[in-house]
Amino acid sequence: LKVDDDTFVRLAPLVEELRKEPSGVRLNWGYFDGRARVQRKGKRAETEWVLADTYLPYSLGGGYVLSWPLLRALTDHADMLKHFNSEDVSVGGWREGYRFDC
């Protein structure tokens, strides 16, 4: 679970919903949007983003949940993953840009 520092998480309902998911699944929960234009100037400029004029779908809002199988796949391939200025954009790119067998 990754949340912004100003986010309040209601853990009991979150855990209840997560328990409904099959175990071992590559789960990535959150609100995702891929319409944002790449920021080319300012503090959050992404100078090395070359995939498209917009970001790949990434998590927006208060936070997101990644399952253990997805986290394991990402860490197993960490040396291949490109990091961008925005952590959320990086995770979105990793999620969309790579296909892992979990």
Strand content is 15-25%
- The first-to-last residue Cα distance is 19 Å
The residue-averaged pLDDT reads 87
According to DSSP, the number of beta strands is 3
Taken from the alpha-carbon principal axes, the silhouette is globular
Q: What is the share of helical residues?
A: 25-40%
Radius of gyration: 15 Å
Structural category is alpha+beta
The helix tally amounts to: 3
Give an account of the 3D structure.
- The protein has 102 residues and is an alpha+beta fold.
- The chain contains three helices and three strands; from the N terminus they run E-H-E-E-H-H.
- The mean pLDDT is 87.
How is this structure best summarized?
With 102 residues, this protein is of the alpha+beta class.
Question: Topology, please?
Answer:
Elements: E1 2-3, H1 11-19, E2 28-33, E3 58-66, H2 68-76, H3 87-97
Any descriptors?
102 residues, alpha+beta, three-stranded antiparallel sheet, 3 helices, 28% helix
